[in-house]
Amino acid sequence: MFSPHDAAQDTNMNGVWDPGETFIDQNGNGTFEPKEYYDANNNGLYDPGLTNPFRQGSSISFDTYFYGHVDTNATGYRLPNHTVFIKLASGGSDKTNWPWGADTPQNYANFVNEYHAPASEFAPALNGPTEATRPANGYDLKDLIGNVAEFSEDAMDNNAFGGGGGGPDLKVSIFGGSYLGLTKVHPDPVSSGFESSGGGGGGVSLERYTDLWTQGPLSAGSPAVGFRCFTNN
User: Of 87, 101, 115, 196, which has the highest C-beta tally within 10 A?
Assistant: First the structure.
């Protein structure tokens, strides 16, 4: 098992396992062995940097996770997971806390105008999504932070681990904030079921763009949540 963005294992903090980085293995010897991985894309091979390594047949399961049921061999479009999102949002660079540099949104003078998202928790929302005027990032993409938030492939059953009981509590992760504010994806987050779940202390963090995520019910909608897909190449 490998923990992305955990400095103890992901030493370069790029969100994927790289040769030489540590991981937790089934037999505890700390050595990668040929069958000590989960073949998530069913290609019969270990894919460096793309496959979470652990021994097949271990007790680790993806059954409670939505993305565990994605057919990764299919052609066509899929929603991004967290790792894909932050790679796209950064324009391919993971050297700074934010795509524009080290300044937090509150300290970046042009943030609200360029990214169309209030940074302060109590700042008034903008009127709605706005066409961006800033240049596209290194992947020729705009608006992965601010404007409308991004629906993702990262979803799970919050009751799967014994919390709350009852039927499934299916929640999906939503990235990037919105024109309502970087910490909001719905005008009424309490009654709608959207929760601030990222960052430290239980709330969305504004220290790094990798922490810009909230959670909400799969069945809920929001005027400030959209989606874009990518293809497996």
Answer: 115
